[in-house]
Amino acid sequence: RGIGIRLYGELPDSVLSERYMVLVHLCSNRHPDVRSAARPIVQRLSANETFARQLMSSLFELLKKPLDEGVPEDLVKLVRDHLPGRLATTDQVLDLVNAPATVTQELGGVLLREVVDPSALSVGQAARLGSSDILAVRQACWHILDADPERCKAAPVDVLPLLDAPWEDSRGFARRFIAAHFGSDQLGPDLLVALCD
Question: Whose CA is closest to 159, among 189, 194, 185, 184?
Fold first, then answer.
């Protein structure tokens, strides 16, 4: 297997780029040695941004599905080490957050903070992230809400459910955030009663 991948890697970059799905299959192969042997090829070809974007999109599609043991971890490491996260779209990152593997969700949380424009998510979308089981995703929620308190003040009904999040760190953030940015102008009688409940 190793000899075959080495020979494949010696093909011209232009040929490898055209046949990038072969590389996708190597990167997600059930054999760890195959996945490891494919990494240097990815590293070399990812200098081409068009190729990197195409490969990343294909890997993200794979990460949305259940995969063999060890494959999600290796794919996430490949993305983090060799592919520029800035190429990821908001929709792709949100798909990662909802992926089956914990390590993939963690990657989604990191990319939410690093590459996604906070304004690309509604206040309600951001607040729902605060109920995630994954700390990196919850931290992304807090980062997005903190980025624009004025937008949150215009939609208090979307922020208040964060007070009922299953995680104390998110509930604590919500209490501090609301105390710092919300006044009687934003919280009418109905919302104050809901807040007390």
Answer: 194
